[in-house]
């Protein structure tokens, strides 16, 4: 059957939506990056020193790579919220906005006079989203926290263990990214609700709670069976759903759960005698497991990658970071751009990659456009250190 090629979805789905982004580092900026790629106008409101991620971590030409990766296509406005004039400007901007997102510690925006109640007073239709580690209330709300803490407390980290039972330290901040996606979900739901009911709404995202929702299967499975590692056939305990090493010390993933995929694998591997052992154990005492392990170790990752493209058996290589841009799948989808930036929404017809903004690059233009600020006002604000 010939598959029909679908046309790219219009990439301006959120055109006309104005987002004020008071967040820093990763979860909030990743959320608004996703909104910007769908066409929203995102104004990044930064303190005079800028988002700390501009200068933290690895850098390219003196610029923080994490900032560069998560803030393209936005406009930057610097604003000193500790000054009364800065707060007044923020309130005036909020009157024009559809969405406000912030990631300060709980209570900080309230102390600045920019909490939900204050913003809703000037703009009852605002969709206001707060992202924090432990939510806006409760006994842990004021404690410092990071991605590794959210992974640990949610139970997710306990599902990533080596053969000794020690949790593996992830080299990706899964909770931060997932928290950003969850914030997106609530913001978009708020926009839909406003369109239907004409009212704004407040949304508190606890990254720890979001990560805990990934344990829905595990918690119920343990309650009913006592098994703490979720659905048993998915945790590497059977030969048809496991990770295997290759001859060049790389790894390949096999997910042939359905009988048809397992049969395809066995026949293409020249071992139809394995078909009846699909759900047998990955224990060393299982001779079929030892034979499959030996087979995978007899060929390189490149050879198995070719096999995976030719045999419909749920087989995929474990790629390293630098290999994504070269894999046929991501080449076809144009996921990774030449400058290293990555598309966060597929099929949106995004042809160019807008650059991340310089600190305060759009301060004056935003204030002129949205607040109709005069040159005298701009001059006075600059002299007072407000902008």
From TrEMBL:
Q: Name one Pfam family in it.
A: CoA_transf_3
Matching entries from InterPro entries are given as: CoA-transferase_III, CoA-Trfase_fam_III, CoA-Trfase_III_dom3_sf, CoA-Trfase_III_dom_1_sf
**Signal peptide as annotated in the record:** none
Q: Which SUPFAM superfamilies match?
A: CoA-transferase family III (CaiB/BaiF)
Name by which UniProt lists this protein: Crotonobetainyl-CoA:carnitine CoA-transferase CaiB-like acyl-CoA transferase
Q: Which organism is it from?
A: Fictibacillus barbaricus
